[in-house]
Amino acid sequence: MNIELSDIETEIEREISEAEATVTQPRGPQDDDHLAATVVSPAFEGESLVDQHELVYDALDEYMTTEIHALELKTYTPEQYDG
């Protein structure tokens, strides 16, 4: 993978209002195109889980077709994440 995990976090946070993103490689460096992301944002309030995930996929559009093969995604509103 030619992109750093921090770059992916930055892209999510830039594209989704008030987002806090954490991106990891759950399978280790040998599967560096398989990633996991936890994203917390008030932008998810009132959105279905599918729509929340779509917001993240849209934010990572160019990376989802080139750098990222699979993304394990967890999305939360701030209230859900704190609770």
Explain what the structure shows:
This protein is α+β, with helices and mostly antiparallel strands and 83 residues long. The protein is 40% helix and 23% strand. It has four helices and three strands; from the N terminus they run αββααβα. It has a three-stranded mixed beta sheet with strand order 1-2-3. It is globular and about 35 Å long. The mean pLDDT is 90.
Key traits:
BolA/IbaG_stress_morph_reg, globular, BolA, alpha+beta, 4 helices, BolA family protein
Kindly provide the radius of gyration, computed on alpha-carbon positions and rounded to a whole number of angstroms: 12 Å
Instruction: Tell me the series of helices and strands, N- to C-terminal.
Output: HEEHHEH
What level of helicity do the residues show? Answer: 25-40%
User: What is the arithmetic mean of pLDDT?
Assistant: 90
Number of strands: 3
Q: Give the helix/strand class.
A: alpha+beta
Number of helix segments? 4
- Percent range for β-strand residues: 15-25%
Low-confidence stretches: none
Layout of helices and strands, plus pairs?
Elements: H1 5-15, E1 20-24, E2 34-40, H2 49-59, H3 61-66, E3 70-76, H4 78-82
Parallel strand pairs: 2-3
Antiparallel strand pairs: 1-2
Give a short summary of the structure:
The protein has a 3-stranded mixed sheet.
